[in-house]
Amino acid sequence: MDFVNKVEKNGALDAKTKELIALSIGIVKNCETCIYYHLNEAMKLGASREEILEAAWVAVLMDGGPSLAHLEYVIKALYAPLIKAINEPYSKQ
């Protein structure tokens, strides 16, 4: 764990940037658990939706189609509360 703590703390790159990089790698590696973990950590560190989506699109740029399929997890996680709020009035009918 000492290694992980040293890598994740602020250095030449701040912790938020490192989490955005880790999110991109999770997308490229097709690791759903990694995607959700690093997305949440990035948000805890103050990453905006725009920053998260931009990092995700960098992964798609570098990896192509396979990463595009995993972009769905990022979009669902970012917009789930909004989608729920929009659909809630209709679910009561």
From TrEMBL:
GO terms for molecular function: peroxiredoxin activity. Gene3D superfamilies: AhpD-like. This is Alkylhydroperoxidase like protein, AhpD family. It comes from Fervidicoccus fontis (strain DSM 19380 / JCM 18336 / VKM B-2539 / Kam940). Pfam families: CMD (PF02627). It comes from the Archaea. The lineage of its organism: Archaea, Thermoproteota, Thermoprotei, Fervidicoccales, Fervidicoccaceae. InterPro entries: AhpD-like, AhpD_core, CMD-like. Keywords: Oxidoreductase, Peroxidase. The keyword Cytoplasm does not apply. Residues 6-70 form the Carboxymuconolactone decarboxylase-like domain.
